[in-house]
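Help wanted!
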Amino acid sequence: MSNTEESKDFEVRSLDAMCVNESHLQHKWYHNLKYMAVGIAFGIVFVKAEIISWFRIQEMFRFQSFHMYGVIGSAVVVGIISVWAIKKFKIKTIYGEKIEFHPRTFNKGQIIGGLLFGLGWAITGACPGPLYAQIGSGATVISVTLISAIAGTWVYGLLRDKLPH
Amino acid sequence: MIEFIKQPWPWYIAGPLIGLTVPALLILGNKNFGISSSLRHICAACIPAKIPFFQYDWKKEIWNLFFVGGITAGGFLAMAFLENPEPMVVTAELKSELSSYGITDYNNLVPTQIMNWESLFSLRGLLMMIGGGFMIGFGTRYAGGCTSGHSIMGLSTLQWPSLIATCCFMAGGILMANFILPLILSL
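Answered by r_m:
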């Protein structure tokens, strides 16, 4: 890949910090299995705490139950403490790499896209993670919802230059 | 013990476990917790169609696809071995509202009476499953993240754009659940 292509790639990715991969190491494919293990644990929690339930999401958005607020709120508290500890004690990755954080920049997408995603979250009763877990739990029709979400992402990519950011 | 685990887990167990995903992914390999980006990687891998947004080395991000593959497998394992035999306990308010739309079955986490293969081609099913999915995919990428990327990872690293995004997720959800979804469910 040439330098210009690389810098363009970074520019495209910088608006979207979720896609910045911090590790600079090259590994064999099976090193990815550890992320699969984290995913399995995560998926089990999703099902057992009924986070993938359409009904729990309806309760949340109607302010009828504390459950989902408790889940997200306590997850954020644990996340904040963990990130603080990683920075404070300069904790490294298991490969000895420095853990890097990238600041996110504000753009209008967080408002417009955020509202759109919120609409979709309440209607399907799922955000992207639960979509995967719902399919795994046997709700096969949700694979159509997932394909539609992939299509939505693709259309966003297509129209990206024409949208306000 | 297994009977105990099969019960629904309370928020104060599940929330901290989800929060621990943030340091787990960072320590395992400097990965930022985020799920909606997997949708982008699938586009980049399968249908990039010369769109600049999908021209990047998706293989470098393949860990994310292993991660969501794991979530799918976790969903399967939890149902196969740890399924709660009881119907879901839902608040009476929601039950009475949903019964007016004919939703009375609480045996599944997904409302199977309205989300099934037969209803996919009804107007209601089309709006909920295909329309809803499209808004998730378009909205999360436009916002640059979803509940995991913004609301958990972003807030954990004290990013104010993520706080704005989270507030907008909630605003959109409240609007849909209270004002628009009742109209769709009545179809």
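OP: Thanks! One thing I noticed: Chain B touches chain A through 136 residues (CB under 8 Å).
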